[in-house]
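Hi R.,

Here are the chain sequences for the assembly we discussed:
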Amino acid sequence: MIDPSQPTLKGSSLWLDAWIKLGKNRLALSGLVILLFLIVVSLLTPWIAPYSYEEQNLMLGATAPSAAHWLGTDIFGRDMLTRIMYGGRVSLMVGFIATAVALVIGILWGAIAGFVGGRLDAVMMRIVDIMYALPFMIFIVLLMVVFGRNILLLFVAIGAVEWLTMARIVRGQVMTLRKQEFVEAAYSMGLSKWAIIRRHIIPNTLGPVIVYTTLTIPSVMLLEAFLSFLGLGIQPPQSSWGLLINYGVETMEEYPWLLIFPGITLSLTLFALNFLGDGLRDALDPRASKD
Amino acid sequence: MLYKKLYSKSVALLAITGLILTLSSCGDYQSNVESGNREGTLHWGNGTEPQSLDPHIATGVPEHHIISSLMEGLVYKDGETLEPRPGVAKSWDISADGRVYTFYLRQDARWSNGDLHNAHDYVWSWWRALQPALGNLYAYMYFPIANAKAYYDGEINDFSQVGVKALDDYVLQVTLTEPIPYFLQLLDHYSTYPVHRATVEKFGTADQRGTRWTFEGNIVGNGAFQLKEWKINRRITVERNPHYWNAENVRLNQVVFYPTENVTTEERMFRAGQLHYSGIPSDKIQTYSQSDDPSLRIQPYLGVYFYRLNVDKPQLSDKRVRRALGMTINRDQLVSQITKGGQIPAYAITPPGTMGYYPESDLAFDPEGAKKLLAEAGYPNGEGFPTTEILYNTSEGHRKIAVALQQMWKKHLNIDVILLNQEWKVYLDTVSNHHYEIARAGWIGDYVDPNNFLDMFLCNGGNNRTHWCNPVYDQIILQQVPKAQTHQQRLELFQQAENILLDEMPVIPIYIYTSNNLVHPTVKNFGRNILNQANYREMYLEPQKTEAID
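And here is the predicted structure of the full complex:
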């Protein structure tokens, strides 16, 4: 992606640089591989799952891991591996989509407020403050009660709450960036405000945004588990990692595998996201020296 | 600095995840049981926040546990035998035809504020309980009393025609329409408890719901204890009532009721020495019984677990659909694999053996027959059957049963069912207002008689809550049963009524309860009875030398 507005001197793009740097970061790369693996497995689950996720076998009940059921079965005799695979579909989807919603709103809101400044900034940030002051759980519960239970709404509801911090982070970054020389230079070259935001401001805020994103995804997954536990999220017999963990906790002494396996899966995802986020931040920091 | 903040956030997040994963136990350890044994304070896991402490409004078991400490009826039931014992009435006569009861009240009975307590309190309280505007769901408990039903239905307006009279300040006479064998037992039910008139009227009119009279600092009762503190969703504390007629023989100083909706949490509190009494999650029963833990109590319990079907909903208005739902529940698997507490599969509403009554039932697990019925009702193979919702009050146990039934109905009938849980008070409101499709329910005997299970489903019965109404059924329960000449004839009439109920199936019986609880060994005189009614008057705590429970 060579920027045509640059002098024709051959330069490597931010993205290519980042990709090369990321490739050198073993930890980040392994995080990426784990994440891709989980995503691929989730996508293929309906075809590769060993059992049905809803078919119960009450007479079997909860059994420890065995050759037939690698991760054991839950109290209804359902295969845990299958449950975790299907749960991953919901958890990852909620995690990514809700975070994406938060990301888009947060970045736009923060960038505009920070860049334009003045009265608009004040108004926009007061709106964020007001939203912050709302007890967000009640806010989500209200949304769900008014609009009914619907998994899409769950994404939007969580996303609509999670963008606030994102907007603040981005605004703070933008405030420091907009007086910097390269932005002045862009002005003097006659770029429009929108072009400056898009081309110079947002890429420079990517570091903290990405770190925050990797933190948002797992917190959104846990939030989903909590809402589902209250009966506001997804419906049984469907499940998600957070819900599996919640139920696993209830019987952790009798049937520890019901807690351990979903717990490991969620932690693994979380670590993978954090390592990847760390690596991406280093790789995407345009101020870091190019080597 | 920004990064530092983010990192501290990430650390916090990891810590929270770690907390959820390992679920570290509560930090500060101070055993309620140890201090309670010393001070005479009983710590009671009560399951949920009560709907109300007004005895003419409450309908649930958790409410019963609290109200029975705060108030007392004319008689109370013995903790072991359930025989009536003199409460506010020190003695009573029953006329030869069994219709007229004359109660002689104690002259030393007092309200908890010291006011005199006499027969006029009963006349006024029972008048209040029969005011339609109060919405007393238990009003039908009074119907054995002469003219009580006519008064409640508005057919007569003069309460003096109802069969309850104060002959003088301390003599109360009650006249029944028919001699019924269980009348004295009714008098230990909270729906017939007296309320303190001055207090009720101070905070609203007599038939006003939800006034502040039951709140901390306001409520006046006549029981062994009085309300000391009500911290919503945290605890309700009752302390010894010095004006109680038998106060010197009450040995507990305080009872603290904890509203812990999650039974897993409650059991953990018990193990941590925070409770003397708690429920037990079904999956832990085996662990406890294998280690011969003396705290575990599994007893017969006169109660039935069932599902209400709202017959107003189009898909549930056809009795063939309701039967089909009832015929596709594999109750044997449910009790052996899910509830695990020795519960008995129920194919009728009345628990077997209630006063010698063993209901017969044609209900059985029959998926093929059920499929045919559903097809006849216009839903062949479940096609066209709308997604239906099961409502239950928030609890792990109810959820498991609902998840199992959801799958049984999906598998055998190919119909889609979704789950909705609500907090206890909200759930009670939703069900009473018929804003549900299928609702989990449980009915614990208020007194030991099949009538208690069957008169729930009268057309205007407050605890019917299904809008199901069958005049023949009403006629049997209200007219024929009270007139039965022999016990055998009476039981046959109950069977007739039960057959109608099972044929039309506005409610699906699922299992007969057992009471599975944990009771700390230091609790003495706990009493065992099939109603699992606690008798706080006689309980006491005996500290052990070594507090060794794990």
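The longest helix of chain A spans residues 80-116. Chain A has one domain: 17-44+93-283.

Let me know if anything looks off.

Best,
T.
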